[in-house]
């Protein structure tokens, strides 16, 4: 547990050591204060006034030391809590930006947000509120056991054996509760995800007349949560009872053994009474330790989740990053890739896009067009073959070099909860307002500005919720135009293609193609025809054909068949 803390604090461990030292000193002072009660009570029972005053002074001194050390360690505990949270936020933030983009699935982002908000808070508050009783109770109990050995070695031995028994009971009860807690945690995450899904899929549920009925996946997981919660409750009761019984048993054993010593004249009654008081003070903190076990276990689990993220391998950075050798060129050479082992999405894909040209990627739904984009932007590393961007293997470039060459207009556009202007400026932070306006005009953002009550300075809401899908896409196109990267990856999302949008998308692609290499997942006939080359993917992870529109029609293959089918239909898309 403490090792876990030290791991997440990294080089900033000094704070932890300082806190531990003060908390331990407090525990020792507390233990000594308890011990001093024995000679004090003895002196009172012996009617030895001067000894009683002497021990009382010692007691006062130790109480004063307890107060001071408690105060200092509390402050340090609070500081450690804040420091831990800040360190965790920094370390998580620094590490997350080095992870492969493919790591950020929807499930993962849910988990990360839970870890970053709740997890860090919980771990931080553990040092502020729970370390002190654990450390202080452990040390004071040890001091008391040593003291008991000193006052009466026989009772001391019974207390030491009792401490071992209590420790074993705490471990057993802890493991009984721990498995139930872990199951409960897993179910809580599932409930969290299902509730989000339930909120998100409201439009679909209502469209299909299911608004009033229950949503089975959520109902199921809530049912599981109820059952897991009940199991956890029973196990917790069993664990806590085991601890309670163990504490009482140890206390009774000390009492019984002490009574037997007294009855058989083996111990002075005055010492026995004082020792009984000490035994009561000893079993209390040890029992409390077991109660704190559950909180500490939860903190340990959170630490494990945090360290798991921190230990996730970053995207491999080249030892000697290579500079771009052919700006604007893209080569995909015998690429093999699958998200899951044994299920290849790309088996052998090759094509080449010359600088300044436009390549249209077409193929059946699920043939791997989006996946190819992800490989070009190095969301994932290929399993075989090479992806070269700017003439250099993407694995031999540092992230900034690779990203500097690419503009991406993907289907799932994310807008930040900021103004429209700032959302476009992300494309090139040093762009002037005039440059932003020019890019926005081409992309058709001007129409959005007119509609919004505060024009350019209107916040677009979290994730761009104040804009339509088509409008969000236009903002993302404006970003790409503004960035002016040598290579543009453009996904012509079908959902966003209303006639007004279509005109802007076409104009933007033309403008982008004037200055950059454009690779487009094409859904529009005009885009495909305008491309310098068309790469037709098959549904087996390969390339069916590569050529211009005229060449492909002339060869009469899969593309020609699609072409004839789609032109006969009202709309056209190369997806099935
Ligand atoms: N993150 C992922 N994890 C696992 N499998 C995935 C993931 N993303 C895509 N796939 C799978 O990879 C295959 C190719 O998907 P991809 O999205 O690249 O196809 P696509 O050609 O772009 O499809 P569409 O035209 O429908 O958008 C599909 O079978 C899909 O289920």
TrEMBL record:
SUPFAM superfamilies: ABC transporter transmembrane region (SSF90123), P-loop containing nucleoside triphosphate hydrolases (SSF52540). Residues 330-565 form the ABC transporter domain. Its main location: membrane. The chain crosses the membrane at residues 20-41, 53-72, 130-151, 157-178, 237-263. One of its GO terms (molecular function) is ATP hydrolysis activity. It comes from the Bacteria. Gene3D superfamilies: ABC transporter type 1, transmembrane domain, P-loop containing nucleotide triphosphate hydrolases. Residues 17-298 form the ABC transmembrane type-1 domain. Keywords: ATP-binding, Cell inner membrane, Cell membrane, Membrane, Nucleotide-binding, Transmembrane, Transmembrane helix, Transport. One of its GO terms (cellular component) is plasma membrane. It is found in: Cell inner membrane. Signal peptide: none annotated. The keyword Cell inner membrane applies. Belongs to the ABC transporter superfamily. Siderophore-Fe(3+) uptake transporter (SIUT) (TC 3.A.1.21) family. This is Putative ABC transporter permease/ATP-binding protein.
